[in-house]
């Protein structure tokens, strides 16, 4: 199968589209918008190239620029496109009450994330009642598969050849996210997740902030979403973790069953 990188080399104009798409994802991931400098840095572009692309996107209504702060934000056309796509891809209305129930029963912050290519994107956040919270994850935040607990859960239930291909595509994971994300430790964590049923992230992103995640499956049995919980480390101790895991898995199973019965 031809990779996305090789496709961009052979399809005329594909590189410009890929760069513009990367900027759109970065803009949409920030609630208060992004500065030109930060967007250019995160997209791996020069300031002039990023500005040129953002200006073109603004002319199409896909992004906007705050006149007071000069920060780039999502535009009205992006909202209209998202509304049109929601009827096909959005499962938030199916899952919101389940995410809320998970937060109420565990008292921790609960999330629904979806797989998007090699990343997970957070769709829903519901706060738990426990006053100490983790703010690692919120709506729109993206992580590579295998990094946050949601991505670990999804990756662990993909076919072995897909896992192999993913790890070969992303040798940078260890350097960017630390030794625990090297191929060896990653594969061990995936095996542990399959055996346990849910993923455990013991403060690998932010020290002291723990998370657990469980995969949610589509009608064909593919792991396409995940429910997760995050909170302070002491809330995920050995005396409480098994119960949290059982509650999380029960809610993930409920959502998988609902998706299978509704989506066509």
TrEMBL record:
Pfam hit, one: IclR_C
Keywords: DNA-binding, Transcription, Transcription regulation
InterPro entries cross-referenced by the UniProt entry: GAF-like_dom_sf, HTH_MetabolicPath_Reg, Tscrpt_reg_IclR_C, Tscrpt_reg_IclR_N, WH-like_DNA-bd_sf, WH_DNA-bd_sf
Residues annotated as domain IclR-ED: 77-261
Superkingdom to which the source organism belongs: Bacteria
Domain spans labelled HTH iclR-type: 14-76
Signal peptide region: none
PANTHER family named in the record: HELIX-TURN-HELIX TRANSCRIPTIONAL REGULATOR, ICLR FAMILY, HTH-TYPE TRANSCRIPTIONAL REPRESSOR ALLR
The protein's name in its UniProt record: IclR family transcriptional regulator
Species whose genome carries this gene: Microbacterium soli
């Amino acid at each position: 199968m031809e990779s996305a990188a090789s496709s961009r080399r052979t399809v005329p104009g594909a590189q410009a589209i890929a760069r513009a798409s990367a900027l759109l994802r970065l803009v949409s991931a920030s609630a208060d918008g992004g500065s030109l400098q930060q967007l250019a840095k995160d997209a791996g572009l020069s300031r002039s190239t990023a500005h040129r692309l953002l200006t073109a996107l603004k002319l199409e209504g896909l992004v906007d620029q705050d006149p007071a702060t000069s920060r780039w934000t999502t535009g009205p056309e992006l909202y209209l496109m998202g509304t049109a796509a929601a009827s096909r891809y959005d499962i938030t209305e199916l899952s919101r009450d389940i995410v809320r129930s998970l937060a109420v029963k565990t008292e921790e912050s609960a999330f629904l994330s979806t797989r998007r290519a090699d990343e997970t994107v957070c769709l829903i956040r519901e706060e738990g009642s426990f006053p100490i919270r983790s703010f690692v994850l919120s709506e729109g935040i993206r992580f590579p598969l295998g990094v946050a607990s949601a991505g670990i859960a999804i990756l662990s239930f993909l076919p072995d050849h897909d896992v192999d291909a993913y790890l070969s595509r992303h040798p940078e994971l260890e350097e960017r996210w630390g030794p625990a994300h090297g191929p060896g430790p990653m594969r061990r964590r995936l095996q542990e997740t399959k055996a346990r049923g849910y993923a455990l992230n013991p403060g690998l992103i932010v020290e002291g902030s723990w998370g657990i995640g469980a995969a949610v499956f589509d009608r064909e049995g593919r792991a396409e979403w995940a429910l997760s919980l995050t909170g302070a480390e002491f809330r995920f101790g050995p005396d409480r973790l098994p119960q949290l895991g059982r509650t999380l898995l029960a809610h993930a199973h409920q959502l998988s069953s609902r998706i299978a019965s509704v989506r066509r």
